[in-house]
Amino acid sequence: xxxxxxxxxxxxxxxxxxxxxxxxxxxxxxxxxxxxxxxxxxxxxxxxxxxxxxxxxxxxxxxxxxxxxxxxxxxxxxxxxxxxxxxxxxxxxxxxxxxxxxxxxxxxxxxxxxxxxxxxxxxxxxxxxxxxxxxxxxxxxxxxxxxxxxxxxxxxxxxxxxxxxxxxxxxxxxxxxxxxxxxxxxxxxxxxxxxxxxxxxxxxxxxxxxxxxxxxxxxxxxxxxxxxxxxxxxxxxxxxxxxxxxxxxxxxxxxxxxxxxxxxxxxxxxxxxxxxxxxxxxxxxxxxxxxxxxxxxxxxxxxxxxxxxxxxxxxxxxxxxxxxxxxxxxx
Length: 331
Ligand SMILES: O=C(CO)COP(=O)(O)O
Ligand SMILES: O=C[C@H](O)COP(=O)(O)O
Ligand SMILES: [Zn+2]
Ligand SMILES: [Zn+2]
Known about the structure:
The protein is of the alpha/beta class. 47% of the residues lie in helices and 16% in strands.
């Protein structure tokens, strides 16, 4: 039997995006795979009074099990009430690659899905996205499409080089497909190794500064589809304190560079109304777990290292909501 997101107390992205575009901030889209990540996200968003998009990749569904994830999302709505603030919660499929996967999520309580047809030809992308939109809209679910390909690892898909979004395609794409939001490629990419040191310049403090995002492309897109909700994937900043911690505590992360928070702040003020962050959370948890296991080698209770990891993650998300995305106090 199909389960509607409405029965779970979740919301789609429609109103949230409208307010975010008008208000000059972005809604956080944080990926989760397990209970501690979900708790950290919800606690951080309740404490900062921020709306939130709980983001699930197909990898996460395989890892955690789709039924369990859905029931966790149902629990999320009750949990935030218990915490004392009923923030709007979206359950979103990240990087859906087939109609069947999107349909399965829509039939199982997701309030929003992404169909990433960006790896197909333009015509195929339009046809696939339109098909998902028709099914989703019949169920009140909102849809994110994508134009342009991000460099780095996208789920199972590896894009060696990014292809920037062509502004001259966006109007036609939005009109033909009926999507509710559009992910674009302006120089961000997935993972912790977004740029090689050779691509970066070094500032006076010895910090690697990556090549500037193509804000000119974003501006051109905004001119062509004014006020239309834009999504930025691959937006982790790869905090160097976490990379350093991981490496000092026995890890081996080489050349990890992300998107400066200043640039994300600038993007959030534009039509960019959803910013995807996954890798930074992975770094925060890994650094915290390594710290506990190094300092207390006799520790073997998972709560003793996953608990501090959850705390570190919550701190990171609160920082993002308040200092970077501007979503704090917008719930
Ligand atoms: O775009 C993302 C999820 O869709 C996450 O990007 P990061 O790898 O930069 O966190
Ligand atoms: O864009 C990809 C997200 O970071 C999810 O990653 P994943 O497929 O490893 O769960
Ligand atoms: Zn893509
Ligand atoms: Zn992504």
